[in-house]
Amino acid sequence: MRVRKPALTAAQRRAAAAAQARRDCQQGRHSTTPTFRPGEQVCLTCGVVIYCPGCLQANGLRFPQVAHAYTLECPTHQQRGVVPL
User: Fold this and answer.
1) Is the residue at 40 inside a domain?
2) Domain of 56, in residue numbers
3) Beta bridge partners of 42
4) In the chain, how many domains are there?
5) Residue 80, pLDDT score
6) Chain centroid to CA 57: how far?
7) Contact at 8 Å (CB) between 24 and 16?
């Protein structure tokens, strides 16, 4: 006879999801959302700000001087031969 594990409570499920999200961030898999600035995304879990240098250049913007900022090309600028307008 197999013993069933007790179901997780809602708080336990939230804690497990938060721990998984933190592990994802540590491995570079951020949950990002775009901001109102072109080429900028922010991670909803850890708060890191990610910029696409190609988008910043295309819109005439400089790389901001903030803590926890990283560069990562967006899918458009990852393709070879795509030049910012």
Assistant:
1) yes
2) 30-85
3) 33, 49
4) 1
5) 54
6) 21
7) no
- pLDDT tens per residue, range 8-24: 788 888 888 888 888 88
Rounded to 10 degrees, what is the CA torsion of 75, 22, 66, 51?
Answer: 0
Residue 84 within any structural domain of the chain: yes
Strand partners, 33: 42
Among 62, 65, 63, 39, which residue's Cα sits nearest to residue 52? 39
Q: What is the pLDDT of residues 38-69, one digit of tens each?
A: 888 898 888 888 888 888 888 888 887 777 77
In eight-state DSSP terms, residue 36 is S
Element (H, E) at 19: helix 10-26
- Quickly state the pLDDT bin for 85 (edges 50, 70, 90): very low
Distance between terminal CA atoms of the chain? 67
